[in-house]
User: What shape does this take?
Amino acid sequence: MKIDVSHHGDLTVAKLCEARLDAAMAVRFKDALKSVVDEGANYMVLDMAEINFMDSSGLGAVVAHMKYMGADRKFEIAGLTPTVEKVFKLTRMDNVFKIHASADEAISQDVQAAG
Assistant: This one.
């Protein structure tokens, strides 16, 4: 699984460079993001702009990552495609995660909050 990681002050953006997040990718996804967190990411935005398909295993992997980060760290989502956004809404995960329209929006909001 290819993930591009960029750092913007305290914010780490992890961009998924795949078209699918499904059962075949879930374990690699969790391992890759775990490595990013273990390297010191305390505030992460997952950029899903390239994901066109996500099944329940993919959603479960996203939730598992949120739990791995724990209450002391921030984990947010950005760039949901319409198909993936529908999965988040149908499962009401849009009420669980803070979702940004894009990674750029998340970066901009973080810069404004830092003042």
In short: The helical segments are 23-38, 56-69, 82-90, 103-114. The CA atoms of residues 35 and 42 lie 12 Å apart.
